[in-house]
TrEMBL record:
Its main location: membrane. This is ATP synthase subunit delta. It is found in: Cell membrane; Membrane. It comes from the Bacteria. Keywords: ATP synthesis, Cell membrane, CF(1), Hydrogen ion transport, Hydrolase, Ion transport, Membrane, Transport. The keyword Transport applies. The lineage of its organism: Bacteria, Pseudomonadati, Bacteroidota, Cytophagia, Cytophagales. InterPro entries: ATP_synth_OSCP/delta_N_sf, ATPase_OSCP/d_CS, ATPase_OSCP/dsu. The gene is atpH. It is a peripheral membrane protein.
Length: 185
């Protein structure tokens, strides 16, 4: 079975268990913290995926890094995963948990790329665009890329709205190539 499917099943189990125990929001915060820590520490991520390091050593590392800040349910989940020798997929489980949480909570993630930082008015406009398209609450991530020059690129799930100057100029060039006013001989 692929790691994605295994991670999805573990995440679903943790999600359902945290819902039953009424600690869904706390476990969600734990998973966000876990993914943020792993994204910030390449060494920790590599340690968890390393098959040479013993499982009890990995659990000790997890306990020392996250033990005081996470819920007992999350720590118990980490212990179970470690006992089953599946530490390598912990990062995927956490990411999948966040995806499933967003799905049941009606939260849509979107990314907007612009040349300059967004003003509050523009941020509200982009959030409204996403709400109109999806009907869900929006979690907007902003990316500043000077190569965009002007306009924006908005990604909503697997959709992309590219309204950059570069794209519009390219469309204009293509229109001139297909000029209907010049007769072809």
């Amino acid at each position: 079975m692929s790691d994605e499917r295994v991670a999805s099943r573990y995440a679903k189990s943790l999600l359902e268990l945290s819902q039953e125990q009424g600690s869904l929001e706390k476990v969600y915060a734990d998973m966000l913290s876990f993914t943020k820590t792993l994204n910030g520490s390449r060494d920790l991520s590599l340690v968890l995926r390393n098959p040479i390091i013993k499982h009890d050593k990995k659990l000790a590392i997890i306990n020392s890094v996250f033990g005081g800040s996470m819920t007992e349910l999350t720590m118990a989940f980490f212990r179970i995963i470690t006992q089953k020798n599946r530490e390598a997929i912990l990062e995927s489980v956490a990411t999948e948990f966040v995806k499933q949480y967003n799905l049941i909570s009606g939260i849509q993630k979107a990314t907007v790329t612009t040349a300059v930082p967004l003003t509050p008015e523009l941020r509200a406009t982009f959030q409204q665009m996403v709400v109109e398209r999806t009907g869900m609450k929006v979690e907007l991530q902003e990316v500043v890329n000077p190569a965009v020059i002007g306009g924006y690129v908005l990604r909503i799930g697997d959709q992309q709205i590219d309204n950059t100057v570069r794209t519009n100029v390219q469309k204009l060039k293509n229109n001139f190539k297909e000029n209907p006013y010049i007769t072809k001989l």
